[in-house]
Design a protein that fits this description.
The protein is α/β, with parallel strands linked by helices. Helices cover 21% and strands 30% of the residues.
Amino acid sequence: MAKMNETMHITLLQTDIKWGEPAENISQVEKIIHTCKDTDLFVLPEMWSTGFATKPENMAHEEDANEALLWMRQMAAERRCAICGSLAVHLRDGSYRNRHYFIDGRNGHEVFYDKHHLFTYGGENCYYTPGQSHTIVEYEGFRILLLTCYDLRFPCWSRYSDGREYDLIVVVANWPQSRQSAWQILTRARAIENQAYLVGVNRVGDDEYSHYVGASCVIDPIGKRIGQCHYNQVEAMTVEVKLEEVRRRRLKFRVLDDRD
């Protein structure tokens, strides 16, 4: 059983993604990381190396040849921490996936979550194959549920339940300014209804479809915003989360006992 006094330092990397330029995006992120103090987990936005490529041809690379994934593994090992974020990948079976990787550089453990709710409004469903299962990774005593962008709108998919028990939700996103009010509400709602921390990392800048203002955030188990990045600003923000706080809230106000 995890210790009651465990804490984790999480650094949100709110970046301005250069369209279709993995090398430039890797360089940008690496420079930001080198300005950060030691942390346990770095979180990057959705499709952080390319931008939100709904048409993945010439944008998505094979997993074994994906320079961004190779960089994530190397950086996690060098910094002795974990790094997560999603990439557009092309699998050997010919399918494309919006794959959210979680890489633990301390022991080499690596897991991924394939985005389940593809963004049909933007045509993501026309090219990508949806994932069919949840991914919960254990790290630093926390059980972490991985989600990607549009998943945030579907509470049943992320609902805390028997067999899907977690302490922290990590959502990586390309969430546009035009729907920023929904981002503010839904990040808090998912934290409140599941009595869990939520870390949401969004991008800033522009692509040919949208403008993104960021507002990456950390929400505590009662819906209080304990950290938020600035609007329209590339930024790294580190927040401490405490496992004891999750346990304390769940024991004091036992709403999860009455879940369907």
